[in-house]
Fold this sequence. Notes:
- The chain is an alpha+beta fold.
- The strands form seven sheets. The chain has a ten-stranded antiparallel sheet with strand order 1-7-8-9-10-18-14-13-12-16, covered by helices on one side. Strands 6-5-11-17-15 form a five-stranded antiparallel sheet. It has a four-stranded antiparallel sheet with strand order 19-20-23-24.
- α6 (293-306) packs antiparallel against α7 (309-319).
- The longest helix has 21 residues, at 444-464.
- The two termini are 24 Å apart.
Amino acid sequence: MFIISPTYYCVYMRTVFLSNGSFAVLYDENYYIRDIYYPLLGQHHHHSFGGRFKIGIWHDGRFTWLENIGNKEIKLSGSKAELHAQWDGLDIHMEDTVLIPQPVLVRHVSIKGPGFVRVIFYHDFKLNDYEAGDTAFYDPSLDTVFHYKGTTWFGIASTNPIYEYTTGRRDLNVVLPDCEDGILSKNPIAQGSVASAVSIASPEFYYFIVAGDSYERVMRLIIELRDRNNVETYFRRSVNYWSNVASEYGDDELAAQSIVVLLGHVGVNGSIPASLDTSIIKFNLDTYGYLWPRDAAFAAMALDMAGYYTFTKRFYSLVFKLFGGEGFLFQKYNPSGTWGSTWHPWTARSRKSLNIQEDETATVIYAFWHYFQRTRDYDLLREVYDVITRAANFMVNFRDEKLKLPLESYDLWEERLGVHTYTAASVYAGLIAASNLAKMLGEYENASKWEEAAVEVREAIRNYLFDRERGVFYRSVNIDDGKVVSVDKTVDSSIMGLFLFNVFDVYEPMLESSVKVIMDKLWVRTIGGIARYENDYYQRVPGDYSGIPGNPWIITTLWVAQYYMAKGDCQRARELMSWVNKVKTPTNLLPEQVDPFRGLPTSVTPLVWSHAEYLRTYIMRKRQCA
């Protein structure tokens, strides 16, 4: 169990992730809820962007918010979060979990010390992602404050009586100032853009936020949880559940936490959003709360390696419904399955290009083959085989007739149009996977056609994408009418896709020399780790980047660790895994990337793909470097 110290915090860093697949919350460095989702994770968020569900302590006439207490510690172990703080002679302890399977956040509060204490909870809901039309009210018959809009309901209650309450307009900043004298004004109802607060005048109690689709459903759960025997049982059961789920990985706390993080992102309908951290919205007015088929497929592969097939089957059942009639996937999807936002223009569509990321289509097919090998799930295979056929035929046909390379699409970094080495590698793997799946159903003609196309892609990679002068694969090329018309010589870690997708043996000289170039050009010498590519400007922080290719990423570093492991160089692989453990948050969450000066998270935390790659690397280490 790790402790987070105040000196570690970066602004708005997420320190806690709790989820049961339909109800999820993320906390910041002050133990404040910053993100809350129900029932579709990533899509149905009910928090005010930039707002906070604050916690205040009143003690014998003095008041403070938790943000003003310096000596506090936050811990996260599995699905239980804990806060320890000292203030004004009080020892403050809170422990939280999200129940299974009920959509409920439960918090146990215990405060020791002399005098009278009140705990104030401020609620910054913005239901269904927009603030107009919300209602907050106090129901004296249930001693509960409700927030609702349409079929979205939240109830806030406790095992102890609510001492005081209030509701009011968030846009007029009515509620927050009302909290700071420790006395709430008991305004019973507000509508529009609203916030609320409740206080509990007791040193020990359970507090809970209950979600549901109606007043009646929330009401029934609140009545049930008011019984301390029930809430204590449910709390203990939920914590034990996640502890047991990850118990096989107890020798590595980050691997165990990665299991909980990954399973917690698998939604009730099978969607796996990339990240639920909305702090990224300040950069582009959008979030990572979408289903990227590629990211989700890597998460599913990690969970399949660990044996959690019942969770991943939900994902595969969903994702094969998202393929279009032409046989490919869109850039990203809302968790409900509708198209997500995009920046890939339709003007990119031509006879030689599409505004998609073809690797996403290929990776899903590749991941499903790995799932099928482990499960022999013929029932699901027969349901999705027609989609696999369309996808495989698309990959066969979406190639240059002469060179046999894929035509142009966007790269996995979602930045540039071209024929990318990573994408070509994924297409090879997707076609091999489709061929293997066809054989399982006796479709030998399809199997032969797709395997032959895969071999053509592999040989085209060898013939056209390797820079023999520099000894490294190109990031990408542009082709026109059977000719390579330009090349991108930027050293890019994504060429590790040739290893990830088993295009070449690990001892292939072209791959060996490419990895050496990656380590030489992309290793971040200030703090360690591997950048995405040379001169990467995404999410740079203030500082002198002279001689620094970009921020080090978790996934890129772990790709190289996996490569070394496959070669039997366990020492170098362990060194890279140790680096990841150094830059994780003290609560065992992995960001997308870290800054190259202090090693602090930049961008979103936790990122599903980062945890997936760590779990994959850990399992490989157990098998190959025991």
